[in-house]
């Protein structure tokens, strides 16, 4: 977006003093890094929940805004400038200004994702994005609420959730470990095809590569492992199992520069975030009075499951799985309070915008109605899927598959959270890995 602000000062955007800078590092920026940006560390997530780390981050951002107004503000670290956004208008400007002058392919993200998908859209130059982004949009059918593979996806979900519930009937409980096994099978079938259901090797390889990704440039790449992993994905594309996304990759026209196979690790990887969001949505659903009944009532009439979709969106608003939306500036940028040089990292801390109780009366309440209409640039930014040209192209696949899983779970059984949530005052951090539900047949 061209900058039209008149009479801008030429001074630099204000920098935080050493004490404020240390507070922001500790309370806002380090938390997501310690929890594991590329693959979560469950112990760190548990600790974050105990100290409600995300609520502390939001409070810190509110304090910065009361001291600095609409900002932005800068942190100056050795070799790196980081700008924190405090104002909704700036969030929309940055997201809409992707990939230039606000590039999603920021330095540390490239270091992390290059371990397993150096040719992915997210870490591409603006020229490479021209082919890679549309390729993702074509296969994921970004603009369609219901993907053309929805029937196959639904059948896979029914089978896998049935198997999960069969096990839960036996033990009487549904916990994260069982859910995660079901999820892995479901994702491999949807993305790679039936033959991948029990291909644990492909998931383990990706996991090992992602663990390296958590350390970005600090550990060397394991090219042999990456070649084996990407080679396996290529085999699934060659096999092109009908109804899988691999089949769509095989039959979608693409230039060599689009690197079709290297778009796939992002899908496999990002389905993890959906698993956490779905398990948290289940906690919301079974804790909120009347929510399960509302969901059950819509199932036969509305195959796009609007109330379940908004529950998933609420789960993502309350506990965003991408808490830091990151961009690097590719040119000098001007702001209301000064300029930032090219090469500055720009940070949108999503929990601040999602949970700012000074602006959003619903901040800490379960409020699916927030999502009942389309949201645009005039609205307060709720950005679990980012926004603008870099917005998640998989968002509709996420909402579809997540709401189908929830529909199967609450449609087939009565579930009771062992630790129900108070949906009028929700915690800033919720660890999905320790949620447990008792399961009963209706
Ligand atoms: C809860 C689940 C998910 C959430 C919250 C989510 C969120 C996001 C966000 C915030 C971004 C932008 C990242 C950035 O700007 O740096 C993104 C990018 C992306 N997501 Fe998702 N995602 C989810 C699941 C998925 C799934 C399941 C897929 C594919 C099946 C997917 C495909 C992608 C791709 C390909 C990109 C890169 C887009 C680009 O660079 O243009 N996501 N996602």
Automatic annotation (TrEMBL):
Protein name from the UniProt record: Cytochrome P450
Native source organism of the sequence: Citricoccus alkalitolerans
UniProt record similarity statement: Belongs to the cytochrome P450 family.
């Amino acid at each position: 977006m061209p900058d039209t602000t008149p009479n801008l000062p030429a001074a630099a955007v204000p920098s935080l003093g050493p004490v404020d800078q240390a507070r922001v590092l500790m309370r806002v920026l380090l938390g997501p890094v310690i929890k594991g940006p590329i693959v979560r560390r469950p112990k760190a997530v548990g600790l974050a929940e105990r100290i409600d780390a995300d609520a502390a981050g939001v409070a810190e951002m509110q304090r910065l805004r009361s001291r600095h107004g609409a900002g932005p503000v800068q942190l100056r670290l050795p070799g790196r400038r980081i700008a924190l956004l405090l104002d909704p208008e700036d969030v929309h400007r940055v997201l809409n200004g992707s990939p230039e002058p606000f590039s999603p392919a920021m330095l540390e993200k490239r270091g992390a994702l290059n371990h397993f998908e150096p040719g992915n859209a997210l870490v591409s130059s603006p020229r490479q994005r021209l082919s890679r982004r549309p390729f993702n949009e074509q296969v994921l059918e970004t603009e369609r609420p219901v993907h053309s593979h929805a029937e196959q996806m639904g059948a896979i979900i029914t089978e896998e959730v049935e198997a999960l519930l069969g096990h839960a009937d036996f033990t009487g409980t549904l916990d994260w470990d069982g859910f995660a096994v079901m999820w892995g099978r479901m994702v491999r079938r949807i993305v790679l095809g039936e033959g991948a259901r029990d291909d644990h090797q492909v998931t383990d390889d990706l996991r090992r590569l992602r663990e390296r990704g958590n350390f970005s440039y600090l550990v060397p790449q394991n090219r042999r492992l990456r070649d084996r992993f990407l080679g396996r994905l290529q085999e699934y594309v060659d096999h092109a199992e009908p109804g899988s996304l691999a089949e769509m990759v095989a039959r979608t026209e693409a230039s060599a520069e689009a690197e079709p196979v290297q778009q796939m690790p992002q899908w496999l990887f990002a389905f993890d975030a959906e698993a956490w969001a779905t398990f948290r949505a289940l906690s919301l659903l079974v804790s909120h009075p009347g929510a399960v009944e509302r969901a059950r009532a819509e199932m036969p009439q509305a195959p796009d499951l609007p109330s379940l979709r908004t529950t998933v969106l609420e789960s993502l608003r309350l506990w965003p799985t991408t808490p830091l939306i990151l961009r690097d500036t590719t040119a000098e940028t001007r702001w209301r309070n000064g300029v930032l040089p090219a090469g500055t990292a720009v940070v949108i801390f999503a929990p601040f915008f999602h949970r700012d109780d000074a602006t959003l009366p619903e901040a800490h309440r379960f409020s699916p109605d927030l999502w009942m209409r389309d949201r645009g640039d005039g609205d307060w930014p709720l950005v679990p899927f980012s926004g603008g040209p870099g917005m998640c192209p998989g968002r509709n696949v996420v909402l579809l598959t997540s709401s189908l899983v929830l529909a199967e779970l609450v449609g087939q059984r009565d579930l009771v959270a062992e630790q129900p949530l108070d949906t009028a005052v929700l915690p800033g951090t919720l660890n999905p890995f320790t949620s447990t539900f008792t399961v009963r047949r209706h």
